[in-house]
């Protein structure tokens, strides 16, 4: 066991350069060295903190016994407080204090109340008497109750008791979450919102309920669903001095800014490779309180470590090239005879690994950089990958009518001055992860990691990212690096567009009654996993 007090004293003495330091042995010394390395990295600005939340299990001891499922709208309604003591059942109507009646019984009373034909001498419609209604339907006890029946008949609407419906939703949500956790599914707060809307839809509850952040937080406390937070401290150790890296980054940006006026922003590009997992899963999940280990089910374990490479091209105008270059790992470096899924916005290659080669780089230039719609005179920023620096290889595939200037970012500087690293890949991967997580939750038999399914997903996501609505987001990646491009106005990220808080609605798919999980950036309609991913939604 680590002697924490002794380690803290040692670190304090070392940091303050005190003459006397405690002597440390074994694990204490190793732990102190690790912490000092982290502190030095933080002091040099080369330090990142990632907080992840894992929901583990339900635990009786941690439940908030004072919690009730009512929301703000409930508190604005004139309802009785004693509904909390009733078991959760859908579509219950409160007729008197503490007495609830199911909708079916109320509708029976409404039908009977309007069953007589004809009118009286005064022209009023013939109705069963109050005594008849009171005798036949025991929940009708006074004229106020009878007026409720009249109002329902006239408007075909009635306020179902919100508190009772919310209690039903809350209990059903607990059952659903418990089942998914037992199955090892990955859950997040956005998953809870989806499940809530799904509960409302499948039970045909007459309630408009958008779960707020506060309601979700209190529900988790009320059911003892813990939020197990894990914090990762990542230090980026460089062989170069931090000051040197920063200076080289500034010099590169300044030199590039001197060249930018000679090109329109639509002719300045950044290309960069990034490895994606075949089955991208979120490291953040709901779990039950007290769990020390959180096993999560993925469809194929090897697919969480095996990767493919994507190579996008992004302009300083915030426009993503319509074609995403993809390299897959295939046995013997060849596709099977049956081929693979094809779409107009992806160009797919393969190799014995997912790592790009010089020949694949040349193919990228031929199929993307020099395709007919691209400008003939352009500037391209790339990292220090060896093949990028092979000018003769690039020249060998450059058309005679094209003139391309390639600027290579110094090693170690890409995290500061490469737009794809600074602002594109993180959002790209987040969208892929969120779609994958929903597929794992609702369609566990769908092989997301398979070749064609992977390509379908990438084609869909890239098409969404290429929307003109996201142009400010992509352009901000250049601005954030320090390049002389206009600062974009306020913008939403891809995830904010595709997964807004109220994304869970009725699916827009033809005749579909399932709950949506995504909103198309183009048509702004909501779709379930089937009608967006499986059907391969393309509205324009």
Automatic annotation (TrEMBL):
This is DDE-1 domain-containing protein. The lineage of its organism: Eukaryota, Metazoa, Ecdysozoa, Nematoda, Chromadorea. One of its GO terms (molecular function) is nucleic acid binding. It comes from Caenorhabditis nigoni. Residues 478-540 form the Transposase Tc5 C-terminal domain. It holds the Pfam family DDE_1. Residues 338-436 form the DDE-1 domain.
């Amino acid at each position: 066991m680590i002697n924490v007090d002794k380690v803290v004293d040692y670190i304090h003495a070392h940091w303050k350069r005190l003459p006397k330091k405690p002597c440390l042995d074994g694990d204490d010394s190793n732990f102190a060295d690790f912490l000092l390395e982290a502190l030095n990295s933080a002091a040099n600005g080369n330090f990142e903190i990632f907080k992840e939340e894992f929901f583990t299990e339900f635990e009786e001891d941690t439940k908030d016994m004072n919690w009730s499922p009512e929301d703000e709208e409930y508190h604005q309604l004139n309802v009785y407080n004693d509904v909390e003591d009733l078991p959760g059942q859908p579509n219950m109507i409160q007729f008197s204090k503490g007495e609830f009646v199911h909708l079916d019984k109320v509708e029976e009373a409404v039908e009977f109340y309007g069953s007589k034909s004809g009118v009286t001498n005064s022209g009023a419609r013939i109705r069963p008497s109050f005594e008849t209604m009171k005798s036949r339907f025991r929940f009708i006890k006074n004229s106020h109750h009878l007026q409720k029946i009249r109002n329902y008949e006239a408007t075909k609407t009635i306020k179902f008791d919100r508190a009772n419906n919310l209690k039903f939703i809350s209990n059903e949500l607990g059952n659903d979450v418990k089942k998914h956790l037992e199955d090892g599914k990955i859950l997040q707060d956005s998953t809870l919102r989806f499940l809530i809307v799904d509960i409302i839809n499948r039970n045909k509850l007459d309630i408009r309920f958008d779960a707020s952040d506060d309601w979700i937080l209190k529900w988790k406390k009320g059911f003892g669903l813990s939020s197990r937070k894990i914090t990762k401290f990542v230090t980026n150790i460089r062989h170069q001095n931090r000051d040197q890296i920063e200076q080289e980054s500034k010099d590169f940006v300044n030199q590039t800014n001197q060249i930018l006026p000679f090109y329109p922003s639509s002719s300045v590009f950044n290309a960069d490779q990034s490895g994606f997992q075949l089955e991208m899963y979120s490291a953040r999940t709901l779990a039950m309180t007290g769990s020390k280990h959180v096993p999560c089910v993925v469809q194929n374990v090897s697919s969480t470590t095996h990767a493919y490479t994507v190579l996008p091209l992004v302009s300083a105008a915030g426009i993503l090239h319509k074609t995403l270059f993809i390299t897959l790992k295939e046995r013997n470096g060849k596709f099977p005879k049956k081929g693979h899924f094809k779409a107009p916005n992806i160009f797919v290659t393969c190799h014995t690994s997912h790592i790009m080669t010089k020949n694949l780089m040349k193919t990228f230039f031929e199929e993307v950089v020099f395709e007919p719609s691209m400008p003939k005179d352009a500037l391209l920023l790339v990292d220090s990958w060896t093949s990028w620096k092979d000018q003769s290889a690039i020249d060998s595939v450059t058309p005679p009518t094209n003139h391309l200037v390639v600027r290579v970012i110094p090693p170690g500087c890409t995290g500061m001055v490469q737009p794809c690293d600074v602002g594109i890949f993180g959002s790209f991967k987040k969208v892929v992860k969120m779609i994958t997580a929903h597929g794992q939750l609702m369609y566990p038999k769908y092989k997301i990691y398979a070749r064609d399914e992977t390509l379908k997903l990438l084609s869909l996501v890239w098409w969404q990212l290429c929307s003109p609505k996201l142009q400010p987001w992509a352009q901000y990646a250049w601005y954030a690096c320090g390049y002389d491009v206009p600062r974009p106005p306020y913008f939403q990220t891809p995830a904010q567009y595709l997964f807004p808080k109220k994304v869970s609605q009725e699916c827009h798919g033809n005749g579909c009654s399932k709950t949506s999980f995504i909103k198309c950036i183009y048509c702004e309609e909501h779709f379930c996993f089937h009608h967006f991913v499986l059907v391969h939604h393309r509205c324009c």
